[in-house]
């Protein structure tokens, strides 16, 4: 898979959040907005609508299209900042400041795309949590980069599967947009009805 058929950055981040959610949303097209995704959408529109900016000591670009031919990846950065010739992706999220590995993978993949586009190392990114009005600094090298690249590979495998991976009711299900399609409260996956078994 190359840039003609790139994977969305958001899909890889969703996979890190929950592989079942990623499959339901992107392979089955079961994505449905809920109150959290709508709030996130409104936040992003507000951020993107501000246009290009300049603050003392830094330049800013909003809703920047990103791609990597090498990785077969594409998406957007909510904001790209430049300070002293160094560029940083900034991802905006609803809610309070938190340590979310899927958010970190998302900003790491944005950094990988920027590296290829600008031909310079991108070692730091930021996640701005609107509920706290604070930024989390994220180091994009080392284990996070390895996890992001491993997840990217695993997502390609996931999309080849005709069935979603099993899901299990967990705290993260509370805000999940795929909850209705997933039904994590249902019987264990292995006991569920398989319509294939009833075909002649
Ligand atoms: S409801 Fe829970 S298990 Fe189901 S897709 Fe969402 S996060 Fe995953």
**What is the CATH level 1 assignment?**
Alpha Beta
| General shape | globular
Which CATH-level-2 architecture? Alpha-Beta Complex
- Total number of strands: 7
What's the mean pLDDT score? 88
What's the helix count? 6
What is the rounded distance between the termini? Answer: 35 Å
Count of all domains = 1
- What fold name goes in the CATH topology slot? Lambda Exonuclease, Chain A
User: Helices and strands: which structural class?
Assistant: alpha/beta
Strand composition percent: 15-25%
As a percent range, the share of helical residues equals 25-40%
Gyration radius from CA atoms, angstroms: 18 Å
Low-pLDDT stretches: none
Order of helices and strands: EHHHEEEEHEEHH
Bound molecules: iron/sulfur cluster
Largest sheet: 7 strands, mixed
Describe the structure.
The chain is an alpha/beta fold. The protein has one domain (7-198): Lambda Exonuclease, Chain A (Alpha-Beta Complex). The chain has helices at 9-17, 19-27, 35-48, 101-118, 142-160, 179-182, and strands spanning 7-8, 53-55, 58-68, 73-83, 86-93, 124-129, 134-139. Strand 6 (124-129) and strand 7 (134-139) form a beta hairpin. The mean pLDDT is 88. Bound molecules: iron/sulfur cluster (SF4). Iron/sulfur cluster (SF4) binds at residues 18, 20-21, 24, 167-168, 170, 172-173, 176, 178-179, 182, 184.
